[in-house]
């Protein structure tokens, strides 16, 4: 009996030593946050979408503790996702896990999966820190050109191999049309101060379909879709392209290689200097081996489609979800759209937008801030 009791005490002591205490969690996080040569995930998570903590780091200290964070929070910190889904909503983590495995297998700094229970929707991720591009550029403006050049080179490397067959859904004409349709669903009714007729919605859709036709069949690239300064982390302690941490890629598709570049350079939330934008585009074209003019035509098409979508998303976030602060971003996105539509390849779409879609004047912005 005494022998059995002693064995029981030893088992209890061993179990206690393995318990995930706060100090043990800090040790795990310290190892993963500072690992210069991140290990590849053995098992195969994003906007403002990855996993985000509920609290910030203590003053003067980098946040080291890993937290159990709900899927679809990281850079977003409680915001809705760009597609409008509440960030606390239950989502199947399988796409994030699968794409994480794909990215890490190629040496990119997607967060390591420390543990996952896909059936329950829980994932424990490596904490990549808080050095988002948007923060680094604000604190050290002199690094902006270097960071954006590195991001362009990462895209070129990512696109140097096509997506594995069947690994990603296609970014096809139906998806491009549905996304851009958010403009007529949410922005136009408030901008016009009147319901949108079926005929008007169809006119805009036809013009969009014709514009995107040259790029709608492309499947050669992994398109992360939200590749911008709030979803990229600077990890200077790592080497090469691993210096850029990736977030919010769970909705990746197979499409055209220009999409993520214009997501980076035509940022809805911050101004990118024209010289940085031009240098970033040139670096990407050279690194990826594109011919400049065909690439710029495709980029203009996809940028216009994306900015029509974003204007619709921001209108929906305000009118449906009460997030009126997004209305303040619409004029910047509208300016991007006007530059995109100036490309000769978009003359017909430009004529349709000019004829039917009002600019975000103060009266329209005021209506957009009101609930639907």
Helix content percent band: 40-55%
Please state the structural category.
Answer: mainly alpha
- Rg from alpha-carbon coordinates: 23 Å
By DSSP (H or I, 4+ residues per run), the number of helices equals 13
- Overall geometry comes to globular
Question: What's the helix-strand series?
Answer: HHHEEHHHHEEEEHHHHHH
- Note the gap between the termini: 73 Å
Mean pLDDT: 82
Beta-strand percentage? 5-15%
* Total number of strands: 6
Largest sheet: 2 strands, antiparallel
Low-pLDDT sequence parts: 1-87
Strand sequence of the main sheet, in spatial order?
1-2
Structure, explained:
The relative contact order is 0.13. Helix 7 (198-212) packs antiparallel against helix 12 (347-356). The protein has a two-stranded antiparallel sheet with strand order 1-2. By secondary structure, the chain is mainly alpha-helical. It starts with a helix and ends with a helix. The longest helix is centred in the last third of the chain and has 28 residues, at 292-319. Helix content is 48%, strand content 6%.
What is this entry, summarized?
Helix content is 48%, strand content 6%.
List the helices and strands and how they pair.
Layout lengths: L1 H17 L3 H13 L59 H12 L7 E5 L4 E4 L7 H7 L4 H15 L14 H20 L5 H15 L8 E3 L8 E3 L9 E3 L6 E3 L2 H8 L8 H15 L3 H28 L10 H12 L5 H10 L5 H8 L3
Helix pairs in contact: 5-8, 5-9, 6-7, 6-10, 6-13, 7-12, 8-10, 10-11
